[in-house]
């Protein structure tokens, strides 16, 4: 079965200019990600992981190079079209959640539906509730974001990324601020979503979380230095068992 | 339309969620609008009051007096005093001045049964009441006949009554003015404070003949002659006529200066108009300062929240809001806050005016244009500082807005 390309980048570069200093955050990144993949991106701090994900997520634009999303040339889209792409095709999960403060979980999750222009979502509250149930927060929907733990806030952010039923989910260190147990829960949630057909790209520092993915891309100094299929994928049960093992001296 | 309603809801939620910020913003607007309304209205009130009192003097008024010059800060009479000869001549020949009255004024002690006070006694003829359009509250004016026969009658103002006959009807009672007994025949209707701040009711009016005979003991010049022109349109004619008649009778050669001065009501109004104009400008300056203070308050609140709001904008952009969605939301927020704050400010200003009125008896009409100025400015500040930072943020890449510090 020939798979469809969801993400295709050609010679993608991103240079940050700070006065005289130029930072080459990404250099000539060629990458293809197909429908249904679950990719983990790894690399040292400052290697350009977030920069790459922001460009893929249409939150930032490359300095040069090409980016096609679902065969659409993103470079040629204007601001409004980009906003619509973010709204309809992408669910982005930030390391720092980026939820609205003083706002309930439900209202946060409902937000992408408010900006929907296709008119395909009729009962936004119901959909938001379903998304929250999906991440296991059915009993917290009316809590304000500041009344939730870090793991719960991240689940709200994930629910928000899921609510408009996007084909592509992008997550920037979704478990970065969480304890090991919560991290494994989130990783398992991604596996379930992937099993339902979502394409997922996830940045992570933790090898045991990356091990949940199907494919691993390794970045160094803004270039891809390795790209391989993960043979022995981790599962929730395995990871939890590993967790209980005594630390070897 | 449905989108707009959704964004409208978002804007309202945002106002509600950030109650402190919303209230502080509105406070700035309330203070700005309220202060502008109160200060401008106070200026207007003062102007109105002065104008009322001047026109209360009789709008067609002319005052003829000896020429005086300011010398070392005091008025020095330059010509011969205006006197009975001038008065009789004017009364005989004037076409444009149907009412004429001499006026002799003397500061004197008025003594009644229950007290005494220093006041100014005006000696006038019957026409005075017509010229100054003063009305009677109790009793009556003295008559033409009373003037001719120099009756010891007088009409008093409310301030005098309060002092000399507290809580009593003064008509028919006796008062002494510099030892001369007068019968009070009438009480003048209250008029309050005059254009120059004087008490219009601190006054005793008596026939000028009586004042001259009894208080001066001899005939001498008048302080001035008061006249009223036939109508407002004929004030200028009356002034020219009086000038010509007096120059002729004073035998002033062509080219020589007048030895008298004629002031008309209109000129008086212009002078006080200037004074109150300055007052209004002054209060306007105070108002501008309160506007600026209010404006800075609004600006501060808005600027302090820029970081938080820029991140919020970044979040909204990241999940697919368009720039126009953000702008609509922030515009609605700014307009709602300015509108509600502005309305509360108007209420605050009007109530403030009422309180001042109650406390000081100084009536302040709330000037409509002060509402417009205050409201307009505050709305401008509110919208400018609410909307423009948001516009700047909405133009950013979502990721730059999210990173904003
Ligand atoms: N807005 C910016 N302005 C200037 N330089 C930037 C900006 N964003 C990123 N950089 C630089 O680009 C490089 C890559 O940054 P990036 O955030 O993509 O790294 P990362 O791999 O996500 O690191 P981490 O694991 O710490 O999140 C870094 O050297 C960083 O300093
Ligand atoms: Mg990063």
What does this structure look like?
The complex is a heterodimer of chains A (249) and B (405). Chain A is an alpha/beta fold and 249 residues long. Chain A has a single domain, classed as Rossmann fold, CATH 3.40.50. Chain A has helices at 49-56, 79-88, 105-114, 124-134, 150-162, 180-195, 207-210, 236-244; strands spanning 5-18, 21-34, 38-43, 64-69, 72-73, 90-93, 168-172, 199-203, 215-220, 223-229. In chain A, the strands form two sheets. In chain A, strands 6-7-8-3-9-10 form a six-stranded mixed beta sheet, with helices on both faces. In chain A, strands 2-1-4-5 form a four-stranded antiparallel beta sheet, with helices on one face. In chain A, strand 9 (215-220) and strand 10 form a beta hairpin. Chain B is α+β, with helices and mostly antiparallel strands and 405 residues long. Chain B folds into two domains: 2-53 and 271-403, no CATH class; 60-264, no CATH class. Chain B has helices at residues 2-17, 19-56, 84-93, 127-131, 144-148, 158-164, 208-216, 235-249, 265-304, 306-318, 323-360, 368-394, 398-403, and strands at 61-66, 68-71, 74-77, 99-111, 116-124, 136-139, 153-156, 174-177, 180-188, 203-207, 224-228, 260-264. In chain B, the strands form two sheets. Chain B has a six-stranded mixed β-barrel with strand order 4-5-10-7-9-8. In chain B, strand 2 and strand 3 (74-77) form a beta hairpin. Chain B is elongated, with a radius of gyration of 32 Å. The mean pLDDT of chain B is 85. The chains are: A alpha/beta (249), B alpha+beta (405). Adenosine-5'-triphosphate binds at residues 16, 18, 23, 25, 43, 45-51 of chain A. Magnesium ion binds at residues 49-50, 172 of chain A.
């Amino acid at each position: 079965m020939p798979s469809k390309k969801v993400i295709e980048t050609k010679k993608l570069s991103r240079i940050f200019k700070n006065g005289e200093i130029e930072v080459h955050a990404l250099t000539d990144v060629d990458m293809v990600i197909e429908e249904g993949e679950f990719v983990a991106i790894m690399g040292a701090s400052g290697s350009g992981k977030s920069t790459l994900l922001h460009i893929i997520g249409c939150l930032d634009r490359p300095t040069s190079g090409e980016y096609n999303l679902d065969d659409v040339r993103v470079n040629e889209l204007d601001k409004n079209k980009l906003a619509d792409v973010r709204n309809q095709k992408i669910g982005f999960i930030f390391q720092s959640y980026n939820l609205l403060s003083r706002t309930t979980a439900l209202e946060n999750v409902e937000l992408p539906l408010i900006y929907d222009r296709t008119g395909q979502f009729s009962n936004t509250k119901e959909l938001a509730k379903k998304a929250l149930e999906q991440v296991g927060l059915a009993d917290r929907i009316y809590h304000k974001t500041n009344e939730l733990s870090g793991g719960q806030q991240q689940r709200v952010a994930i629910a928000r990324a899921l609510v408009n039923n996007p084909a592509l989910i992008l997550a920037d260190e979704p478990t970065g601020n969480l304890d090991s147990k919560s991290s494994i829960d989130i990783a398992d949630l991604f596996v379930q979503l992937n099993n339902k057909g979502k394409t997922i790209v996830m940045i992570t520092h933790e090898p045991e979380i990356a091990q949940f993915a199907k494919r691993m891309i390794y970045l160094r100094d803004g270039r891809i230095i390795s790209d391989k299929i993960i043979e022995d994928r981790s599962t929730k049960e395995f990871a939890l068992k590993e967790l209980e093992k005594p630390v070897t001296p | 339309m449905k989108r707009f309603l959704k964004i409208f809801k978002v804007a309202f939620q945002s106002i509600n969620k950030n109650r402190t910020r919303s209230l502080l913003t509105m406070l700035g607007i309330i203070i700005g609008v309220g202060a502008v309304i109160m200060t401008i209205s106070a200026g207007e009130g003062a102007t109105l009051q002065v104008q009322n009192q001047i026109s209360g003097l009789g709008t067609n008024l002319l005052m003829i007096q000896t020429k005086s010059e300011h010398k070392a800060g005091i008025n020095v009479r330059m010509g011969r005093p205006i006197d009975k000869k001038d008065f009789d001549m004017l009364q005989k020949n004037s076409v444009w001045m149907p009412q004429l009255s001499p006026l002799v004024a003397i500061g004197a002690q008025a003594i009644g049964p229950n007290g005494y006070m220093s006041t100014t006694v005006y000696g006038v003829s019957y026409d005075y009441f017509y010229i100054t359009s003063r009305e009677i509250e109790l009793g009556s004016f003295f008559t033409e006949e009373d003037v001719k026969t120099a009756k010891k009658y007088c009409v008093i103002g409310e301030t005098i009554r309060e002092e000399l006959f507290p809580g009593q009807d003064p008509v028919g009672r006796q008062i002494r003015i510099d030892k001369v007994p007068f019968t009070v025949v009438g009480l003048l209707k209250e008029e309050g404070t005059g254009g120059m701040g004087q008490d219009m009711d601190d006054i005793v009016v008596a026939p000028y003949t009586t004042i001259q005979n009894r208080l001066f003991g001899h005939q001498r010049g008048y302080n001035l002659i008061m006249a009223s022109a036939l109508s407002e349109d004929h004030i200028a004619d009356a002034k020219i006529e009086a000038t010509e008649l007096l120059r002729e009778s004073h035998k002033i050669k062509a080219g020589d200066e007048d030895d008298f001065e004629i002031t008309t009501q209109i000129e008086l109004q212009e002078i006080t108009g200037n004074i109150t104009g300055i007052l209004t400008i002054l209060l306007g300056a105070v108002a501008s300062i309160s506007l600026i203070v209010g404006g800075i308050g609004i600006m501060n609140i808005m600027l302090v929240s820029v970081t938080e709001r820029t991140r919020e904008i970044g979040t909204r952009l990241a999940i697919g809001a368009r720039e126009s969605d953000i702008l609509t939301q922030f515009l609605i927020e700014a307009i709602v806050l300015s509108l509600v704050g502005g309305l509360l400010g108007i209420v605050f200003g009007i109530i403030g005016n009422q309180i001042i009125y109650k406390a000081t008896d100084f009536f302040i009409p709330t000037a409509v244009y002060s509402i417009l100025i205050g409201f307009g400015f505050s709305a401008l500040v509110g919208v400018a500082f609410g909307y423009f930072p948001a516009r700047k943020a909405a133009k950013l890449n979502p990721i730059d807005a999210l990173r904003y510090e």
